[in-house]
Every structure is written in structure tokens, then in C-alpha cells.
Design goal:
By secondary structure, the protein is mainly alpha-helical. 61% of the residues lie in helices and 10% in strands. The protein has a 3-stranded antiparallel β-sheet. α8 runs antiparallel to α9 and α11 crosses α12.
């Protein structure tokens, strides 16, 4: 049984995303990380994993339809590549941040202390679970409408550049003389659970770009994107 305060909190979130749900307990489930149940030891609390499973499928079918209708001249390979970006944890994390999901999460004390409320993986999973909850409570059409609204203003070219910057830079350098760019870790700072990495990308002893990220992979992608902008291969 949810407290009156929690129900008020959940309704505030629903209002902010312009959704009405009959069963707010389903939304609470979608916002509950497994660590919360592990610590409170209450069987009546359910975590978001089952709804995440459902939401992942709902998201993929409607994003697939969205792309199919929007890009009638794209083949299956290109559509698949774009979809993989749009349903990735990284992209869903950005949506969750935009919708302000983090403050509404039920999360364990230890996970809270290690920055779990703002972790990419947790917010991405919660976002999928929210979509699953909307689908279950509100039905197919409202779930579709909500997902289409989330993606309607997405700049696909910008997304693809950000997600595939290393691939695009590699294609460019190989066109020059088949050599590959190299990524060098310049600096690593911060505590174990919240490190920051600084990377440079070098080609033929020339530094083409710099990048910063929470993982080496993210920093390398940012460095590659910086290089693409400096080489005027993409707009920046």
C-alpha cells in the first residue's frame, strides 16, 4: 500500500509527462530499483525488472514503426543502425534526464551513496519500465503516442554522429591512406565509482581532437566527434 505522500509524488510526475494512469502502483513498480527491495525486505514491493522487459519490446516496435514511416528510402541495414542508437541505454538515459525521472526513484541506501540515482544503466532501465507501465495501464495507442512524442523532434543525423563518431572518423582516415586513428588516455581523475577520463585522438602524430567522459569509451567517442568537427566533416 503506497503512502499518500508517495501517491502525490507519483501523480506529480505523471502530470509533468502529461500521462494519466489508473494504477499508480504500477508506476511505483516501474520506478523501484532492485536494491530498494533487497534492503527493505518487503515482499509487497516489486522492482522494475519485469516492466523493463515489457517496455523494451514496446519501445522497439514503435521506434521501428516510427523509423519505417519517417525514412521510406532507407534500407533495413540503415534503419537497424539508427534504431540501435535510439533504443540504447545512452539515449534512454538522456530521455530520463529530460523527463526528470531520477528524483522519483525508489533506490537502496548503498546504491544511493554510490551515485546510483544518476547512473546511466539504472535510469535507462527505469525509462523502459515506465514505458512498460504506460503500455499496461493506458493501452497501445497512448503508449505509441507517448513514444512518438519523445522521438518526434530528434535530430537523427546528430544522433548518428554522436553514436558513430569513431566509426566515421575511421572511415575518413582510411580514405586518406588506410591508417587508423589512435586514442591516448591523457588523464584519469575521481573516485573509483565516479571517474572522469580525458582522451586525445591522434592521426599521423597530429592531435585531431580531445574528449572527456565517465568511461574511456565515452571519452573516445567525444574525442572522435571533436575531430570530425575540427575537420569540418560534421557541423559543430
Amino acid at each position: 500500500m503506497l503512502s499518500a505522500a508517495r501517491i502525490k509524488e507519483l501523480n506529480k510526475f505523471l502530470k509533468s509527462i502529461n500521462i494519466k494512469m489508473a494504477d499508480v502502483e504500477l508506476l511505483d513498480e516501474a520506478l523501484t530499483h532492485p536494491s530498494f527491495n533487497f534492503e527493505v525486505h518487503k515482499d509487497e514491493y516489486k522492482d522494475y525488472e519485469r516492466l523493463e522487459f515489457l517496455g523494451d519490446s514496446v519501445l522497439r516496435i514503435f521506434v521501428s514503426e516510427f523509423l519505417y514511416d519517417k525514412f521510406s528510402n532507407y534500407d533495413e541495414g540503415k534503419l537497424t543502425k539508427i534504431r540501435s542508437c535510439l533504443v540504447s541505454d545512452r539515449f534512454l538515459y538522456g530521455i530520463a534526464l529530460d523527463l526528470g525521472v531520477a528524483p522519483y526513484l525508489n533506490i537502496g541506501v548503498h546504491e544511493e551513496k554510490t551515485g546510483g540515482r544518476n547512473k546511466e544503466s539504472i535510469l535507462a532501465c527505469a525509462m523502459e519500465a515506465i514505458l512498460g507501465a504506460i503500455f499496461k495501464d493506458c493501452g497501445v495507442e497512448q503508449a505509441k503516442e507517448f513514444i512518438y512524442k519523445l522521438y518526434s523532434d530528434v535530430d537523427i543525423n546528430s544522433v548518428m554522429c554522436n553514436f558513430n563518431s569513431k566509426e566515421l572518423l575511421q572511415e575518413y582516415t582510411q580514405e586518406q591512406n588506410k591508417d587508423l586513428p589512435k586514442y591516448n588516455l591523457i588523464k584519469e581523475t575521481g573516485l573509483a565509482h565516479e571517474k572522469t577520463y580525458e582522451v586525445e585522438v591522434v592521426y599521423h602524430n597530429e592531435v585531431l581532437g580531445f574528449g572527456v567522459g565517465k568511461t574511456k569509451k565515452e571519452a573516445e567517442k567525444t574525442a572522435a566527434l571533436d575531430a570530425l568537427k575540427k575537420l569540418k566533416l560534421v557541423e559543430g
